[in-house]
Specification:
With 308 residues, the chain is mainly α. Helix content is 65%, strand content 4%.
Length: 308
């Protein structure tokens, strides 16, 4: 394995350039899917290699459950031994597992409570709450997807702006944006170097919904006005909502993008552009991360097999 086992822990740095450039130059749908895929793969690889470092580094600690054959000199020569890194990997891996499990548990709890709070309302796709606090969000639930909005917010919007608001929230549900947001959230918890990708996806998911709303309503200006008004009057939801779905994001940038021309959807950026080079660099980093973790895992399996 050598020092290559540590590569997946730092290779997420190669994705930083594409995180920023994808926001600016790729279609929001493409950017969201690309950045989420890169973040998920890199987080998985770094977690696997963190576990391998822990096993290898702590092999000679008293009371370890590894077989006696592990102490064979030939076996020792085949793996890197770093007791300090191995010990440090134990709390690091525990922290990753605990924080990710807590995030998943909280996600499920918020989702259940949100549906329970709407249990007494008619089972329509739009739930209008008689509340003096203006806010709106999309609540996924499989066959029970719903758009939640308060009367206070509806009263502040014109009819065209209301249609834009509903189209925006429905786009979140149709695109299953909560899955992308949850995936990058877990990835950032697994490896802090992936936080820029989480921030980027939070923005591109909102832009994706903005563009879908503009397509459905046929008015980019109406969507921009609805976003601006909602951001000015909203104070945030009084209870926790699913990851990022009630967050307005960087509103000035979203409004400016809507007042400009619609982005062009491309399957892949040209390699001769800055975003293309950044995307290929991120792809190369992801591929290297996969190969490093796969090589380390196979090596560990063969060593375990020989040690038994």
């Amino acid at each position: 394995m050598g020092l290559f086992v540590f590569l997946p822990l730092v290779l997420p740095l190669t994705a930083w350039p594409v995180a920023r450039l994808a926001e600016q130059h790729l279609h929001p749908r493409t950017a969201t899917r690309l950045l989420t895929a890169v973040a998920a793969v890199m987080a998985l690889c770094s977690t696997v290699c963190l576990g391998l470092v822990m096993v290898v580094g702590t092999a000679q600690l008293p009371g370890n459950p590894l077989p006696d054959g592990w102490s064979d000199p030939e076996v020792r020569a085949a793996v890197p031994f770093d007791e300090v890194a191995g010990k440090a990997a134990i709390p690091a891996l525990c922290a990753v597992v605990v924080t990710c499990a807590r995030a998943l548990w909280r996600h499920g709890r918020v989702r259940r409570r949100a549906h329970e709070a709407l249990a007494g309302l008619p089972g329509t796709s739009v739930a209008v709450l008689p509340d003096d606090v203006p806010y709106a969000y999309a609540l996924p639930g499989g066959r029970r997807d719903r758009v939640v909005v308060t009367t206070a917010l509806l009263e502040r919007l014109e009819p065209a702006e209301r249609r834009a608001l509903f189209a925006h929230e429905r786009a979140h549900l149709t695109g299953r944006h909560h899955r992308f947001l949850l995936a990058v959230r877990l990835a950032a918890l697994a490896n802090p170097f992936l936080r820029p990708l989480r921030t980027a996806v939070a923005y591109t998911a909102e832009r994706w919904a903005d563009e879908e709303a503009a397509r459905v309503t046929g008015s980019r200006r109406a969507v921009a006005t609805a976003i601006g008004k909602a951001a000015l009057v909203s104070r945030g939801t009084p209870v926790a909502t699913l990851a990022g779905l009630a967050a307005p994001g960087p509103v000035p940038r979203r409004v400016a993008a809507l007042l400009g021309p619609a982005p062009v959807a491309r399957r892949r950026p040209s390699v001769f552009t800055s975003v293309g080079l950044a995307a290929w660099a991120a792809a190369a980093g992801t591929a290297a991360s996969v190969m490093s973790s796969a090589n380390a895992t196979v090596t560990m399996f063969l060593i375990f097999r020989a040690a038994f």
